[in-house]
Design goal:
- The protein is α+β, with helices and mostly antiparallel strands and 150 residues long.
- It has a single domain (20-149), classed as Roll (Chitinase A, domain 3), CATH 3.10.50.40.
- The chain is built from 3 helices and 7 strands.
- Strands 1, 2, 3, 4, 5, 6 and 7 form a 7-stranded antiparallel β-sheet that branches.
- The longest helix is centred in the N-terminal third of the chain and has 18 residues, at 21-38.
- The chain is globular.
């Protein structure tokens, strides 16, 4: 009986892995080729988020996982095609915990008023899910600007 539980746990853990190591390397190589071709310099987190903080923001506290954040953004693909713009005049508000992992990681590097340029590999974005605007397995590029944190 213990083995059945262990096997079920192992299956559930391994089924959470969407991408192979080769897939992850391929995404990273595609992002690096884009950065090399454009001359853009970015840092990279351990989990694969590429980022450049344009403005850290003001205040003592960085944005936290439970914070409600109001922000605007421009989202595009690496080929330059813009899929969505949420302007400063009509920003959106979400709890950080409700956002895709790439946005969570990026926002938690900032303070109120901060701005960041990020490139999100699929495993930190929408992964194999597609939306009306974004195909499955897409590498996404965003410029985010924080307007309010609560």
């Amino acid at each position: 009986m213990k083995w059945i539980g262990c096997i079920a746990l192992l299956i559930s853990i391994t089924s959470c892995t969407t991408y192979s190591e080769n897939d992850l390397i391929g995404f990273d190589q595609e992002i690096q080729a884009y950065l090399d071709s454009t001359g853009i310099e970015m840092e990279k987190t351990e989990d694969g988020l590429h980022f450049k903080i344009l403005e850290e923001g003001k205040g003592e506290k960085t944005i936290a996982y439970k914070d409600q954040v109001t922000f605007s953004y421009k989202g595009s693909f690496l080929d330059g095609n813009v899929f969505q713009i949420i302007g400063k005049d009509d920003p959106i508000s979400y709890k950080v915990s409700q956002l895709i992992i790439g946005w969570q990681d990026a926002l938690m590097m900032l303070k109120n008023g901060g701005r960041i340029h990020i490139i999100i590999p699929p495993q930190l974005g929408y992964a194999t899910q597609k939306t009306d605007l974004i195909p499955a397995n897409s590498i996404l590029m965003y410029e985010l600007e924080v307007h309010d944190v609560r």
